[in-house]
C-alpha cells in the first residue's frame, strides 16, 4: 500500500486494512479498538457517546436529500445505533474558493431543518476556505455527543445462535439517488435518498427489549454491515434474498449497471439483531413508525458458516456475501 | 420487476432442475463462455442445485480479463502525458499493468475519468478542446457497435480530439483457437447472450460442424441458464446431431442485429489480437478502419511498451480454456486476490477466479 486510492475509502476490505494497519497501530486506545459507530465514554457519573464523520458527497444536492441533511442525520444515527440519545453537534465546513454563497446558504438552511427534525443542537463549528480545485465545492465534518440510556449494552458479543436479523426497510435508495443525480441517468421513476434521522425509531426499539446489536448500513451497504457483524465470530448469518426489499427503481438501476443492491449505501436504514422471542414484537413496533414501515426479518444467526454471511437466492441456491472488495460508486457519502 | 422476476421463479427453477435430472446420462462438461453467465451461475448459487454429473467451466468471455498487460501499459503511458485525458469503463481501473494500474495513476494525478458509455467520452472531448481524449475500447461484439456509433458521431460533429485505443475483440475466432487445443474436452457450450444478440447464431456454426460439439445461446437470468443446460442435456439424451440451439429467443435472432453489424463493419477492421492467457489469436481483434483511422490514437501518437512478464505459476491460460479450475492454482486466494490480482481471471468482477473468490466456491461447507 504505497499510495491511497479511492478504494481505500470504500468502506470495504481496503478501508478495514487501512484502519487496522495504519490507524490502530498508532492510535491504540482500547475504546477506539472496538471500532463501534460511536465511542461510549464514562465522564464522571455519566456515560456519553461521541462520534465524528465527514461528508464529501457529490453532487451536494440530490433527490431526497443533500450534504447538509446527511451531515446531521449520519452523525445522529451513528450515536443512536450505539444506544445513545443524540444531543449536540459540531460542524466543520471546508469550502472551495468560488462557491456561490447561495449554495452555502442552502446547505446551512438544510442543516438547520435537519437538526430540528432530529432534535439536536449545533453548538460549535469552524469554517475554512481553500483554493479553487483543492476541494470539490464543500465538505462537512460533524461530531456528535449523546447520552447513553440506562442499562443499554449493545454489542456483537451479545449475539447468539437463533437471533433474527431485521432491516428497517428497502435497501440501496441513497446510493442510486446520488448516482442518478450525478450521472443524469433516470431509472424510471424517481428514486429518492432515504436519508433520515433514526433516533426516534431506535429509542422505541430499545424500549421494547431483546435487542442485541444494531448498525446503520451506510457505505458498503448491508453486505458490509453484516460482514462486520459476523467477521471472526463463531456464528454465521443466513439472509433470504426474497425477504430483502429492493425498490423497483433501485432494482432496475442495479440490473442495468451491474451493481448488487446488497452493497449499495443507505442513509436512513438500520439492521437490528434481536432475540428470536422478541423478533415479532420488535417488527411490529418498527412497522408502526414511518421510518420502519417496510421493516422485515431478512435472516438469522446460525451455528454453521462461522464468520460468513450466506445468501439464500431467489431460485433456491446459496452463496457467500463477502465484504466489498473496492470502490463501488465514488463519493456517495 | 417485469421481465426479470419471471426468470427467477423458484417454482419453475425446480421444474427445470427435475427435467435436467431426468436427462442426465453420465458426465457432461459445459463451458459457459461469457463472464456474465459465470457470475450469475455463482450469484444465484446454481452449481449446488445441479446434478453432480454436470461440470461447469468458464471460458474466455470476460473482456477486461483477456485484455493483455501491454494494453494496460499503453493506457497508463497515455495517461502520463499531461495533455491527455483517459476515459474508461470503471472496471479497467484496477487491472494491473506491468508496474502500475490506472487506479494508481489516477491517485497520482493522471486525468482518468470513468464513463458509462463511449458517448460520454465524446462529451468530455467537446468540453476540453485543448486536450486529447482517449477512450479505452474494451469489449466484445456487445460493446463494439456503441463505440462505432460514437466514432461516427465524432466524425460527423468534427470532434477531432476524441480517440480510441482499440482493444476490442471478437468471439468466434477465440472459440475456434480454443477448440484447436487437443487437450480440451467439452460436451457443450453455453454461448454468450448479448454478443449473440449482435452477431446472431450463424458465426458459431463451425463449432458443431467442425468440432461436433453442441451449443446453446442462453440468456443471463437463472432460468435461462438452467433451461440452456437442459437443452444441451436433452440433445445428447435424445441422440440429436449437435447444432447451435437458441434458448434466448426473446433477444437473439439467428442473423443477429444487422444494423449493429453494419456499424462494426463500417468503423472497424479485423486484425490479429493478443489475449491474456491465450496468446495471439489471428483475426480476433478490431482496429479502426481506414476511413476512421484519424480517431485511432495509435495512428496519431504511437507508444511502444516492452513485452511484460507473466507469472509462471499463474494458471489463467488453463482456466480460460476450462482445463483447470481456480482452486487448482497455487496463487489463488494467497498471492492473487481481487485487491492484488496476479492473473487475468482475478481482475474483473466477471473473471472466473474473481467469481470463485467472491462467491466462495467450496466455501459453503460451514
UniProtKB/TrEMBL annotation, chain A:
Residue ranges of domain PurM-like C-terminal in the record: 161-311
CDD domains: HypE
Domain PurM-like N-terminal: 37-148
Gene3D superfamilies cross-referenced by the UniProt entry: PurM-like C-terminal domain, PurM-like, N-terminal domain
Top-level taxon in the UniProt lineage: Bacteria
One of the GO BP terms on file: protein maturation
InterPro entries reported for this sequence: HypE, PurM-like_C_dom, PurM-like_C_sf, PurM-like_N, PurM-like_N_sf
Pfam families per UniProt: AIRS, AIRS_C
PANTHER family according to UniProt: CARBAMOYL DEHYDRATASE HYPE, HYDROGENASE ISOENZYMES FORMATION PROTEIN HYPE
Family to which the UniProt record says this protein belongs: Belongs to the HypE family.
Protein name: Hydrogenase expression/formation protein HypE
UniProt source species: Candidatus Aquitaenariimonas noxiae
Lineage, top ranks: Bacteria, Pseudomonadati, Candidatus Omnitrophota, Candidatus Aquitaenariimonas
GN (gene name): hypE
UniProtKB/TrEMBL annotation, chain B:
Keyword annotations from UniProtKB, A to Z: Iron, Metal-binding
InterPro entries, sorted: Hyd_form_HypD, HypD_1, HypD_2_sf
Pfam families recorded: HypD (PF01924)
Gene3D superfamilies, alphabetized: 6.10.20.100, HypD, alpha/beta domain 1
A single BP term in Gene Ontology: protein maturation
Keyword Metal-binding assigned: yes
GO molecular-function terms, A-Z: 4 iron, 4 sulfur cluster binding; carbon monoxide binding; iron ion binding
Family of this protein: Belongs to the HypD family.
Protein name: Hydrogenase formation protein HypD
Species lineage: Bacteria, Pseudomonadati, Candidatus Omnitrophota, Candidatus Aquitaenariimonas
Amino acid at each position: 500500500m504505497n499510495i491511497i486510492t479511492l478504494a481505500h475509502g470504500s468502506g470495504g476490505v481496503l478501508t478495514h486494512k487501512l484502519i487496522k494497519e495504519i490507524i490502530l497501530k498508532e492510535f491504540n486506545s482500547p475504546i477506539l479498538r472496538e471500532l463501534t459507530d460511536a465511542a461510549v465514554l464514562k465522564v464522571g457519573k455519566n456515560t456519553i457517546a461521541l462520534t465524528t464523520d465527514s461528508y464529501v458527497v457529490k453532487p451536494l444536492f440530490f433527490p431526497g436529500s443533500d450534504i447538509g441533511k446527511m451531515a446531521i442525520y449520519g452523525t445522529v444515527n451513528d450515536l443512536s445505533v450505539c444506544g445513545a440519545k443524540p444531543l449536540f453537534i459540531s460542524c466543520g465546513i471546508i469550502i472551495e474558493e468560488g462557491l456561490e454563497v447561495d449554495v452555502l446558504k442552502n446547505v446551512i438552511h438544510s442543516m438547520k431543518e435537519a437538526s430540528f427534525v432530529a432534535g439536536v443542537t449545533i453548538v460549535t463549528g469552524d469554517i475554512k476556505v481553500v483554493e479553487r480545485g483543492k476541494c470539490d465545492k464543500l465538505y462537512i465534518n460533524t461530531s456528535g455527543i449523546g447520552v447513553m440510556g440506562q442499562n443499554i449494552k449493545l454489542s456483537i458479543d451479545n449475539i447468539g445462535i437463533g437471533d433474527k436479523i431485521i432491516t428497517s426497510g428497502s435497501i440501496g435508495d441513497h446510493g442510486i439517488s446520488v448516482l442518478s443525480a450525478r450521472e443524469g441517468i433516470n431509472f424510471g421513476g424517481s428514486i429518492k435518498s432515504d436519508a433520515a434521522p433514526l433516533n426516534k425509531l431506535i429509542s422505541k426499539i430499545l424500549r421494547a427489549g431483546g435487542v442485541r446489536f444494531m448498525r446503520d448500513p451506510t457505505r458498503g451497504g448491508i453486505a458490509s454491515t453484516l460482514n462486520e457483524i459476523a467477521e471472526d465470530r463463531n456464528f454465521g448469518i443466513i439472509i433470504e434474498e426474497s425477504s430483502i426489499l429492493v425498490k423497483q427503481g433501485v432494482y432496475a438501476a442495479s440490473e442495468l449497471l451491474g451493481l448488487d443492491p446488497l452493497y449499495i449505501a443507505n442513509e436512513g436504514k438500520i439492521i437490528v439483531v434481536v432475540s428470536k422471542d422478541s423478533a415479532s414484537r420488535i417488527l411490529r413496533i418498527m412497522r408502526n413508525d414511518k421510518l420502519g414501515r417496510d421493516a422485515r426479518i431478512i435472516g438469522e444467526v446460525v451455528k454453521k458458516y462461522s464468520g460468513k454471511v450466506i445468501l439464500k437466492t431467489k431460485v433456491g441456491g446459496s452463496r457467500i456475501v463477502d465484504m466489498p472488495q473496492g470502490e463501488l460508486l465514488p463519493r456517495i457519502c | 420487476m417485469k421481465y426479470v422476476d419471471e426468470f427467477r421463479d423458484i417454482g419453475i427453477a425446480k421444474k427445470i432442475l427435475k427435467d435436467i435430472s431426468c436427462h442426465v446420462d453420465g458426465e457432461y462438461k459445459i463451458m459457459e463462455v461469457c463472464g456474465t453467465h459465470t457470475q450469475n451461475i455463482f450469484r444465484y448459487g446454481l452449481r449446488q442445485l445441479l446434478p453432480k454429473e454436470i461440470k461447469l467451466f468458464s471460458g474466455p468471455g470476460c473482456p477486461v480479463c483477456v485484455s493483455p498487460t501491454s494494453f494496460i501499459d499503453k493506457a497508463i503511458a497515455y495517461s502520463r502525458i499531461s495533455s491527455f485525458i483517459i476515459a474508461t469503463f470503471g472496471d479497467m481501473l484496477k487491472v494491473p499493468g506491468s508496474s502500475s494500474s490506472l487506479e494508481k495513476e489516477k491517485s497520482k494525478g493522471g486525468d482518468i475519468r470513468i464513463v458509462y458509455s463511449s458517448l460520454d467520452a465524446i462529451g468530455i472531448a467537446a468540453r476540453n478542446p485543448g486536450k486529447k481524449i482517449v477512450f479505452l475500447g474494451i469489449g466484445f461484439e456487445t460493446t463494439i457497435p456503441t463505440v462505432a456509433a460514437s466514432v461516427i458521431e465524432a466524425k460527423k460533429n468534427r470532434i477531432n480530439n476524441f480517440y480510441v485505443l482499440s482493444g476490442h475483440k471478437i468471439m468466434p475466432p477465440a472459440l475456434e483457437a480454443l477448440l484447436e487445443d487437443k487437450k480440451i474436452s467439452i460436451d457443450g457450450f453455453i454461448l454468450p447472450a448479448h454478443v449473440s444478440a449482435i452477431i446472431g447464431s450463424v458465426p458459431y456454426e463451425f463449432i458443431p460442424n467442425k468440432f461436433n460439439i453442441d451449443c446453446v445461446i442462453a440468456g443471463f437470468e437463472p432460468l435461462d441458464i438452467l433451461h440452456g443446460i437442459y437443452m444441451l442435456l436433452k440433445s445428447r439424451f435424445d441422440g440429436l446431431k449437435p447444432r447451435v440451439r437458441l434458448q434466448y429467443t426473446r433477444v437473439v435472432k439467428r442473423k443477429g442485429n444487422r444494423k449493429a453489424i453494419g456499424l462494426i463493419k463500417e468503423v472497424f477492421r479485423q486484425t490479429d489480437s493478443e489475449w491474456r492467457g491465450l496468446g495471439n489469436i489471428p483475426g480476433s481483434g478490431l482496429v479502426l478502419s481506414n476511413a476512421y483511422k484519424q480517431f485511432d490514437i495509435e495512428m496519431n501518437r504511437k507508444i511502444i511498451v516492452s513485452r511484460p512478464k507473466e507469472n509462471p505459476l499463474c494458471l489463467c491460460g488453463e482456466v480460460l480454456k476450462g482445463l483447470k479450475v481456480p482452486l487448482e492454482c497455487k496463487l489463488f486466494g494467497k498471492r492473487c486476490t481481487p485487491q492484488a490480482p496476479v492473473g487475468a481471471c482475478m481482475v474483473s468482477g466477471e473473471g472466473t477466479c474473481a467469481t470463485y473468490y467472491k462467491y466462495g466456491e467450496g466455501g459453503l461447507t460451514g
